[in-house]
Specification:
The protein is of the alpha/beta class. It is built from eleven helices and twelve strands. The protein has helices spanning about 5-20, 20-30, 30-45, 60-90, 105-120, 175, 185, 200-210, 225-235, 245-250, 280-310, and strands at about 50-55, 55-60, 95-100, 125-130, 145-150, 155-165, 165-170, 190-195, 220, 240, 265, 270-275. A five-stranded mixed beta sheet has the order 4-3-5-12-6, with helices on one face. Strands 10-7-11 form a three-stranded antiparallel beta sheet. Strand 1 and strand 2 (about 55-60) form a beta hairpin.
Length: about 325
């Protein structure tokens, strides 16, 4: 029985990820014919077609879909086994790498500002941060760690909650003309919406403002917090945001919570560890660091909330 080689597995996985022999060849620094030959070799070994062309579109066959998850797992295990063998043998292992998927907002507003601290603690770890909107990552992509928004349950994965249970209505003080406002005053202001699930007006108003439920078609709609938050800072309207993503703006006075409320949502940002992803020391070290930083941020959020209550008394 012929066992596929690592180069053959890599070629298959990359073609599946890119849906293109040409783009896969560019990524692997090979010729298109070399990548095509490697995939053909794998198909001959398996005795079935893995890809099918329809016009200019390349897609996985049902057999290709079934084999892809196993190919990803096999390659991850081989790479991890090589690192372990080198460590046991006392050889210097290659630089550790952790590939992370996160939403643009999480990466920009929380992760990246804190990365200098991680780099000081683990200078030999190579981080690859890929921005992905929730629910829009191609199924062929595989990461060592993903940051997802949800209730905490995903198939074939283990989720650890990080941040995001607290949400509030936020606005620019310039839009309000003050740092506080009544609910009636707010109802006359433009309403900003986010396209994805969670942190929406319906869930917020059910707790903080029963009876006020802005229509989904009203106001402006933004594809993610990475563009919604700048719109709020620019004074385009009021919005519902997770507190940890706007904490810096709140502390700097660029945004305010005019009602002073804080609503706990069933959604949160989680560190998600897909089944079959690499679980070496580098990934675990990065995850431990994220959890410590999350706890520190949570304490800042509580301090921010306590300061508001102190002003009210």
């Amino acid at each position: 029985m012929n066992i596929p080689s690592i180069p053959v597995l890599r070629a298959f996985i990359e073609v599946a990820r890119c849906n293109s022999f040409t783009r896969a060849a560019d990524t692997l620094c090979l010729t298109q014919s070399a990548v095509s030959k490697q995939v053909q070799t794998l198909e001959e070994q398996l005795g079935c077609r893995l890809f099918v062309r329809s016009g200019k579109t390349l897609a996985l066959t049902p057999a290709g879909h079934a084999y892809l998850a196993h190919a990803n797992d096999a390659l991850a295990m081989l790479q991890e086994g090589r690192a372990i063998a080198q460590e046991v043998a006392g050889e210097k292992a290659p630089a550790s790498a952790v590939e992370i998927s996160a939403s643009p907002a999480f990466a920009s507003y929380w992760l990246i500002p804190r990365l200098p601290g991680f780099r000081e603690r683990a200078p030999g770890t190579r981080l690859i941060v890929r921005p992905r909107l929730p629910d829009f990552s191609p199924v062929t992509e595989r990461f060592d760690l993903e940051v997802r928004v949800g209730a905490g349950r995903w198939p074939d994965a283990r989720a650890i909650r990080l941040l995001g249970r607290e949400m509030a209505l936020v606005a620019s003080p310039e839009l309000l003309g003050d740092t506080r406002a009544t609910l009636r005053q707010l109802q006359g202001l433009p309403v900003l919406h986010r396209a994805q699930r969670g942190y929406d007006w319906r869930e917020w108003s059910a707790s903080a403002a029963p009876g006020w439920n802005p229509r989904a078609g009203a106001g402006l709609l933004f594809e993610g917090f990475s563009v919604l938050i700048p719109a709020v800072v620019a004074g385009l309207g009021v919005a519902i945001c997770p507190l940890f993503l706007v904490l810096d703006q709140l502390e700097a006075g660029r945004l305010v919570r005019p009602l002073g409320e804080c609503v706990r949502t069933r959604y949160a940002y989680h560190a998600v560890l897909p089944t079959g992803a690499s679980h070496g020391a580098a990934r675990d070290r990065f995850l431990d660091w994220m959890l410590v930083e999350s706890e520190t941020t949570q304490m800042r959020i509580q301090k921010h909330l306590d300061s508001w209550h102190s002003m009210e008394e």
